[in-house]
Write a structure and sequence with these properties.
Strands 1-2-3-4-5 form a five-stranded antiparallel beta sheet, with helices on one face. It is of the alpha+beta class and 190 residues long. The chain has seven helices and five strands. It has helices at residues 4-14, 64-74, 100-117, 120-129, 136-148, 152-163, 176-189; strands at residues 21-25, 31-35, 40-48, 53-62, 85-94. 47% of the residues lie in helices and 21% in strands. α1 (4-14) packs across α3 and α6 (152-163) runs antiparallel to α7 (176-189).
């Protein structure tokens, strides 16, 4: 008899012929599936609610370019600070365990539509446009997006604020030296 995780893996793996999935174990009793082609990570849960089954699909879409540029600029980042990603939650409720596969297939179709529409350019635009308060990872992501978009003038404004004694609302993870590296790299990319 197949384990339920095996059935889900077979379903997710067969969804796209051009997708290569790798099965990952979190060590916490969860199974994740990674789609390397789209830099996406899938986690499936099925919750028995008594009269219905709730099928959940969590999808993380990461952007390696952002991670690599942040590591290049920042050097050794504090643990857990990175993995720039977009996340989305999908859910469907079905009446029986027999309908779980159909429900999951529906979610996988929705998830792949979402994964394909999340492009790096729109993510960079969004990260560069919004200034996040009090979240170090988001602040690093904001600055890296400015670098990759070659928006050195905005970075120079942040440097000026630091010079005048203001931290420009950055957490202590962001230093003048990091801003200086960001500025230099943005100028190179302009």
């Amino acid at each position: 008899m197949k384990h339920f995780d095996d059935e889900i893996f077979d379903l997710v793996s067969s969804y796209r012929g051009d997708v290569s999935f790798n099965r990952l174990s979190t060590g916490k009793g969860e199974t994740l599936w990674r789609d390397d082609m789209h830099s996406a990570l899938f986690q499936v849960n099925v919750v028995d609610l008594g009269d219905v089954q709730k099928v959940e699909l969590f999808v993380n879409r990461s952007f390696v370019l952002l991670d690599e540029k942040a590591q290049e600029l920042f050097g050794e980042l504090p643990a857990g600070l990175l993995i720039f990603e977009r996340q989305k939650y999908f859910e469907v409720r079905v009446k029986s365990m027999a309908e779980v596969k159909t429900g999951l297939n529906e979610l996988v179709l929705q998830a792949y539509d979402w994964v394909r529409e999340i492009e790096l350019k729109s993510t960079l635009d969004e990260l560069a446009a919004s200034y996040p308060d009090n979240f170090p990872m988001r602040q690093v992501a904001h600055l890296v997006a400015l670098v990759l978009k070659a928006e050195f003038m905005q970075i120079d404004d942040y440097k000026s604020a630091f010079k005048s004694g203001s931290s420009a609302r950055f957490t202590n993870v962001i230093t003048f030296e990091f801003l200086d590296k960001c500025f230099d790299e943005a100028v190179k990319l302009a």
